[in-house]
Amino acid sequence: MSESGAFDIKEILSLLPHRYPFLLVDKVVSCDNKTTIHAVKNITVNEPIFTGHFPGNPIFPGVLILEALAQASGLLGFKITASQPGVNDLYLFAGVDNARFKRQVLPGDTLNLHVTFEKERRGIWVFKGRADVDGELACSCDIICARRET
Question: Can you tell me which residues form the catalytic site (predicted)?
């Protein structure tokens, strides 16, 4: 991990259980291991979702933007607790509140995922998420995750 807290796909794969085609975080640009993470998802036209959403006018689905933010939240949760994934902890997407979509996300876009830890109570974690493309807001929401020991 670099001084900025950046890490690559190898560390992401070690922390998240998701795999292609459902792994939606390509790299982490920065992470302070306490309250914030900045991750990236590169949107490419050859992703399987674009065969059906929508042929001739591909738009990255809003629900997958929310999932990408939830995955970034899980990465931040692992960094905050310094827990070892797969051993005892699993972060589950428990809910989303206040989701707003402001722009379409298209093939060729780089989706910047910004997540901030807000609070934790009895294993329920709340994060604020924001996804943007070239500094323009695409989506904002509150992500709720449940931390479970397996």
Answer: 53
pLDDT classification of 54: cutoffs 50, 70, 90 = confident
Distance CA 77, CA 12 (A): 12
The residues annotated with a catalytic role in the active site are 53
How distant, in Å, are the alpha carbons of 33, 34, 50, 112 from that of 120? Answer: 15, 12, 36, 24
Give tens-digit pLDDT for 74-124.
999 989 988 766 566 677 899 999 999 999 999 999 999 999 999 999 989
The pair phi, psi for residue 83, each rounded to 5°, is -85, 160
Q: Burial-class residue 94 by CB neighbours within 10 Å (0-12, 13-18, 19+).
A: middle
Say which residue the tokens 């093939």 belong to.
107
Q: How far is CA 99 from CA 18, 58, 75, 124, 144, in A?
A: 23, 21, 20, 19, 12
Cross-strand partners of 126:
119, 144
Nearest to 28 by CA among 83, 82, 68: 68
The structural domains of the chain, ordered by start, are: 9-149 (3.10.129.10)
On whether the pTM is more than 0.85, the answer is yes
